[in-house]
Design brief:
single chain; alpha/beta; TIM Barrel; Rossmann fold; Immunoglobulin-like; 3 domains; six-stranded mixed beta sheet; five-stranded parallel beta sheet; 20 helices; binds alpha-D-glucopyranose; CBD2
């Protein structure tokens, strides 16, 4: 990865003289290749430009450099910039120059051999040298899914997946994670991270639930700090600046029944209220790219939705970066396999700037060229796409420092990054049950550890781990939960492990069962048929229960699971999510070196049939959004199976302030801040106001009732308690135009 144009750190590594010589030699090579393949071969290139042209001058404004470069580009140069291909599809490698391809990616299973940081950096540099050998020397931009660390690279630091980071409620931590991930990505040369996923997962049967920071928009919105971590405050302004991607636009987490790549059937008001806010915040933070969603909104595929992509994202939100399609998503538009010129036109005219083809680039470029020359894609659209892409390449500093900054290569899997990851694991743990104060465990305790995920770094890392789907077993370097436990106790010989619980007896202080899910990614993780524990886990838990020893369950999963029936047999339950390589962060909480602070990012259903269940929808989950215990609490009883009646609020001193967050034709979104203005603590509050004929269409962080034209919102389980001066917020969307109601607030 390069340093910024303003940073001379890397200049010592790549003296411009050496780069110019390399480029000159390669131009001769490129000239030979141009007479190669028949279809879609770019026009014969002009002679290599002399150095010192305006677009090569880093002291000029980026817009001037873009204009100058565009004026020198042929149509084929421009079409190549809009083309992204899988590294392994590039055969021969010289086609990168011959077809002027502007971007390369490594998909989930794309790797290098041996799989280590140095080999990734060498691979990147070799590709970049090929790209620089084109007549205009436009550098390639290389993208990868580093969605919980630089997860393609064996030995990289892996952090909790987003669902765990959402549980931390710590945006500043997430920003630090983004910065650390950017350093490891930069150490391998790569420029662009297809992250963060800003999906708002509304149905945990969805296989990508773990890629979501939370079910209510304010949580993914808060965690867009990851964008700033990756890019820096300004893209390219500091070392190890990596282009971020807000994905998947729009509504991927809202499909009916949580079907991956399904249909999100919502009104515009609901779509805007629930799924748009995180993208709005990412744009405000200057995110450089947006990846579209495979899913549909009311039957229209996002990749074909000009209204959402061009009018809303680029127009209304003012997004000035570039839009990239998802992997072979253009192929899906006509419902047939493969892609056609018509599908390419539909996607590009909807607002796609770069197409993740990702394989048959010759066919793609031939069809794309045909659509432009036939006038079905305006030249202005091609120029706009190029302007967006080139602007990011200039801002990243790719033209000045196109090769790996090897000073970051040693950060891959570094002790400092692993320490940060361990902190993230600690903060992500959510304590859901702790009867009798069985936790924290004493380090002198005699413990029996069981479960398929107790000693399995693959299970605790989940999908997108040294392979698209991830897998069980020793897939990479790190610390398992069991290793963390053994390192924490006074005498490791007091810790017995058997995966299945065989050999346990009543002589143990406690049993720790680490159970849950094995790795999966995307649609392969969809669970339409139920979310219960698997037979192995149930058998292990039964053995532990039969011993009479208190059972502490550590649930390693990408989402809430259906454990209602088993919960009474457990003294404690810790939701661990998918912690990544630093399993010692879990034992830090088990032994009380860190008291749990995590809060549920998703409502925990009573059973799969209750899905979708989300905060404010009027349903009563097993554990509500925002729930989480810590140590020192009075023992909390497991939530009662029937909803507790909301107490009639007695007068208490609180105020409610309305703020219109956004509005559109026929609807608006409001955020309401409730403040305890009295001298005593509140245990609950309610806010009511005259609807003036409006209808509330969705609401979060509270419970809504309406009567006689008035709306009443009562606190959610997690935000009722307010000390003097403390505040809570809830939000809603409504039809009509935003008013300035005079709310009445009552505290209890
Ligand atoms: C996948 C995913 C997307 C990822 C892309 C490239 O199918 O939907 O999140 O960034 O392909 O790997």
């Amino acid at each position: 990865m390069r340093l910024s144009p303003h940073h001379d750190g890397a200049a010592r590594r790549f003296p411009s003289a050496r780069r110019r010589v390399t480029a000159a030699v390669a131009v001769c090579v490129a000239g030979l290749v141009l007479s190669g393949p028949a279809t879609a071969v770019p026009e014969r290139a002009a002679a290599a430009p002399a150095a010192g042209l305006p677009y090569q001058d880093a002291s000029l404004p980026v817009a001037d450099r873009v204009n100058d470069l565009l004026s020198r580009m042929t149509l084929d140069d421009k079409l190549g910039q809009m083309t992204q291909i899988e590294k392994d599809a590039l055969v021969p490698r010289s086609d990168l120059a011959a077809y002027r391809i502007g971007s390369v990616l490594s998909g989930g299973d794309s790797t290098v051999s041996p799989n280590n940081a140095q080999t990734w950096a060498d691979t990147y540099d070799s590709l970049q040298q090929t790209a620089l050998a084109t007549p205009l020397g436009i550098p390639v931009i290389y993208g990868i899914d580093a969605v919980h660390g630089h997860n393609a690279v064996r030995g990289a630091t892996l952090y909790p997946h987003n669902i765990g980071l959402g549980a931390t409620r710590d945006p500043a931590l997430v920003q630090r994670v983004g910065r650390a991930v950017a350093e490891e990505i930069s150490g391998t040369g790569i420029d662009w991270d297809f992250a963060p996923c800003l999906c708002v997962a509304r149905d945990v049967r969805w296989g990508r639930t773990y890629e979501s920071y939370g079910e209510s928009p304010e949580l993914p919105s808060a965690m867009t700090t990851f964008v700033t971590g990756l890019q820096g405050d300004t893209l390219g302004a500091g070392p190890a600046s990596v282009l971020a991607t807000a994905k998947h636009y729009l509504g991927d987490g809202g499909t009916t029944a949580g079907v991956d790549q399904g249909d999100t059937q919502l009104s515009e008001a609901e779509l805007r209220a629930i799924h748009l806010p995180p993208f709005k915040e990412a744009v405000r933070r200057g995110v450089g790219s947006v990846m579209l969603s495979y899913s549909r909104w009311n039957g229209v595929r996002s990749h074909a939705d000009r209204y959402l992509v061009t009018d809303v994202l680029k127009g209304e939100l003012g997004f000035t970066g570039f839009v990239v399609s998802d992997w072979a998503a253009v192929d899906q538009l006509d419902g047939q396999s493969g892609f056609t010129g018509a599908e390419i036109s539909t996607a590009v005219n909807a607002g796609v700037d770069m197409v993740m083809v990702p394989h048959d680039y010759k066919k793609f470029l031939g069809l794309l060229r045909g659509e432009v020359t036939a006038g079905r894609i305006p030249q202005a659209r091609i120029d706009d796409a190029n302007r967006r892409i080139l602007t990011k390449k200039f801002q990243l500093g790719l033209f000045e420092h196109p090769l790996t900054d090897r000073s970051f290569t040693a950060t891959v899997g570094s002790a400092a990054h692993r320490s940060l990851a361990r902190q993230a694991v600690r903060e992500s743990q959510v304590l859901l049950k702790n009867d009798g104060g069985v936790l924290p465990l004493a380090k002198s305790a005699r413990l029996f550890v069981a479960g398929k995920s107790a000693d399995d770094i693959g299970n605790q890392s989940g999908g997108w781990t040294v392979g698209w789907q991830g897998r069980s077993g020793p897939v990479t370097d790190g610390t398992t939960v069991l290793q963390g436990i053994r390192a924490a106790v006074t005498d490791p010989s007091q810790v017995t492990y058997d995966r299945y619980g065989n050999g346990i007896d009543s002589g143990y202080t406690a049993a720790v069962a680490v159970v849950g899910e094995t790795p999966y990614a995307e649609g392969r993780g969809d669970r339409p048929g139920g979310l219960g524990l698997d037979q192995e886990d149930l058998g292990t838990l039964a053995r532990l229960k039969a011993s009479g020893v208190p059972v502490v369950v550590v649930l390693v999963s990408g989402r809430p699971l259906d454990i209602t029936a088993q919960l009474p047999d457990w003294e404690a339950l810790l939701a661990s999510w998918l912690p990544g390589t630093e399993g010692a962060g879990v034992s830090d909480v088990l032994f009380g070196d860190y008291a749990p602070t995590g809060k549920l990012p998703m409502s925990w259903m009573r059973g799969a049939s209750q899905e979708p269940v989300n905060d404010g929808d009027g349903k009563t989950p097993l554990f509500p959004y925002g729930y989480g215990l810590t140590y020192g609490n009075a023992p909390e009883p497991t939530p009662t199976p029937t909803p507790t009646p909301t107490p009639t609020p007695s007068p208490g001193a609180c105020t409610a302030t309305f703020r219109t967050a956004s509005s559109w034709q026929g609807g608006y979104q409001a955020e309401v801040t409730v403040e305890n203005t009295g001298s005593g603590a509140l245990t609950g509050w309610s806010v009511d106001w005259d609807l003036a004929g409006a209808t509330v269409t969705s609401l979060w962080n509270g419970t809504l009732t309406t009567a006689q034209g008035r709306a009443t919102v009562r606190n959610a389980a997690f935000d009722g308690a307010l000390s003097p001066g403390a505040r809570a917020t809830f939000g809603f969307t409504a039809t009509g135009t935003a008013g300035t109601p005079t709310p009445h607030c009552a505290g209890t």
